[in-house]
Design a protein that fits this description.
mainly alpha; two-stranded antiparallel sheet
Length: about 425
């Protein structure tokens, strides 16, 4: 690798995470998080898969981490979800198989059959719920735990399948209103707080906008499917329904336009958002992820005006001191590495003028992850050993390393590791 500080940190993290049998990991990584894409071996495998696909690391490292995840039976059925168990492992295995023709095919065939069964069961439950006029749980539809996340996998693995079409049909139906106690509520309105549990701070529930747990992920899936050539009845209408709702709640502030993390019942009834301090832009919540989803939707619909607005919203978020001040960590999910990666992915599809501005914002984001003069070895070890974030994908060292690659090399990922995030 080159001596670029960000790439040097990638190399150091990968070297320290080379072997699951010898690396010093927290007690959860190979035990309770063994099957978790966000925190465990499947996510760490993605780092080595991407590096190997670029000729920067031996494939045996990726295989060793995949083996570490699958030494014991993987969870399927109701206790699994896109980031845990069979579906989580499937994403990592597919990323490897794409670059190793003939490898892992028997395992993937069995996994695909299990995923189809699990998705069909979830879809049946979701349609029963809608038919009964009940509101959804976040875990029914979101990117991390729900049908949108399954859709992300199917869109890569089997985009023309009947199961993929059924997921997209469900997403269309999710945008239809539901009568509830005399009110007509959004089809994705939930009666809980953002955690998915009842929350006194959210009496009457909320409508979640985020990419991780809200309608932002659904918008991105529909947009990516449209760009992939998939069409279902009511497809563009569903895209426009979500976009119109996001337009309704989009705010204008001194630091630029942006979207709230959620809309509460009180805000819905008053028609106004409660005042709040500038919030961090990130993949999971806020302007970064939503701007990318809006850009993808605009590209799918051929809406140049919306595309320009979405790209400019991201430029503003990445250069607004107040929003950046609210960003307090370096991770993929809601930190500076994630912002750099979203900026790079958005720039790849942006109009030339905004692409230049997005790429110009990236060096400062990379410097926030590894400031000039930092020791890459010490930084790598500090990230891996951090008790809260650890070595994993979503908050930890492997995700930071992956997120640094595209923005520091101006080269899109080769393994589609970030397909699980629905940003490409």
């Amino acid at each position: 690798m080159t001596t670029h500080p960000a790439l040097g940190l990638v190399e150091a993290i990968a070297a320290h995470l080379a072997n699951p049998d010898t690396v010093a990991l927290g007690p959860r990584t190979l035990s309770s998080d063994r099957q978790h894409l966000a925190y465990g071996p499947p996510g760490i495998a993605l780092l080595h898969i991407e590096l190997a696909a670029n000729g920067l690391s031996p494939w045996h490292r990726a295989h060793d981490w995949l083996a570490a995840a699958s030494r014991q039976p993987l969870t399927s059925g109701p206790d699994s979800h896109p980031f845990y168990g069979v579906p989580a492992f499937a994403h990592a295995l597919t990323c490897a198989a794409d670059h190793l023709p003939g490898s892992y095919q028997r395992a993937l065939d069995a996994i695909d059959a299990q995923v189809a069964v699990d998705v069909e069961r979830r879809l049946e439950a979701a349609h029963r719920r809608i038919n009964a006029g009940r509101l959804p749980q976040l875990a029914e539809f979101d990117t991390i735990r729900g049908l949108t996340g399954y859709g992300a996998y199917l869109l890569r693995r089997n985009p023309g399948s009947s199961t993929m079409r059924a997921v997209l049909d469900y997403c269309v139906r999710l945008t239809e209103p539901i009568p509830h106690h005399g009110e007509s509520l959004l089809g994705w309105w939930t009666e809980t707080g953002p955690s998915g549990s009842p929350d006194d701070r959210f009496p009457g529930g909320h409508a979640n906008t985020g990419m991780a747990h809200g309608i932002g992920g659904v918008l991105a899936l529909l947009a990516l499917a449209a760009r992939n050539g998939s069409v279902t009845d009511g497809y563009h209408a569903a895209l426009r329904t979500i976009l119109a709702w996001l337009d309704r709640w989009k705010g204008e502030a001194e630091g630029g336009p942006g979207w709230p993390y959620w809309v509460t019942q009180g805000e819905l009834r008053s028609g106004r958002l409660a005042p709040s301090a500038p919030r961090r832009p990130s993949w999971c919540y806020g302007t970064a992820g939503l701007a990318r989803a809006e850009q993808l939707a605009a590209l799918a619909l051929g809406d140049t005006r919306r595309q320009i607005a979405a790209e400019n919203a991201l430029v503003a978020a990445l250069t607004d001191p107040e929003q950046l001040k609210a960003t307090t960590d370096t991770g993929l999910c809601h930190g500076f590495a994630g912002l750099a990666h979203v900026a790079a992915r958005t720039a790849d599809d942006a109009r030339p003028s905004t692409a230049e501005k997005l790429r110009a914002a990236i060096p400062a984001l990379l410097a926030a992850v590894i400031p000039p003069g930092s020791d890459r070895e010490l930084t790598a070890m500090a990230l891996i050993q951090d008790e809260e974030s650890g070595p994993g994908l979503l908050d930890g060292a492997a995700g930071i390393a992956l997120a640094l690659l595209a923005p520091s090399t101006a080269t899109p990922p080769r393994s589609a590791w970030d397909a699980c995030l629905l940003i490409a």
